[in-house]
Recover the amino acids of this structure.
């Protein structure tokens, strides 16, 4: 196991010090950047009282995206299972006709 490295992540004008795996650093930084971009987008497009409103909207957006991605993964898995079953049926029919 690699040693954890300290990183400073800025989200919504606040800095958070995290200890993460070196291999995860790029993903964490990109995710923080995406969250900050969404916060900026919400600040531009929607009226809000304070930063907490925008952070909450970004959190809701992010959670919804993750749920949709998870649902898509389940659908692809079901499709792969159906395709495998269809392939076996076709192979069986071809073997019977030889």
């Amino acid at each position: 196991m690699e040693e954890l490295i300290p990183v400073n992540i800025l989200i919504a004008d606040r800095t958070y010090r995290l200890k993460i795996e070196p291999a995860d650093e790029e993903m964490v930084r990109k995710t923080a950047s995406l969250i900050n971009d969404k916060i900026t987008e919400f600040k531009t497009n929607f009226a809000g009282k304070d930063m907490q409103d925008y952070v909450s909207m970004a959190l809701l957006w992010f959670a919804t995206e993750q749920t949709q991605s998870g649902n898509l993964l389940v659908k692809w898995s079901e499709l792969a299972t159906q395709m495998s079953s269809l392939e076996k049926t076709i192979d069986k029919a071809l073997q019977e006709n030889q």
Observations:
- The two ends are 54 Å apart (CA to CA).
- The beta strands are 5-11, 14-20.
- Residues 51-96 form the longest helix (46 residues).
- The chain has one domain: 5-96.
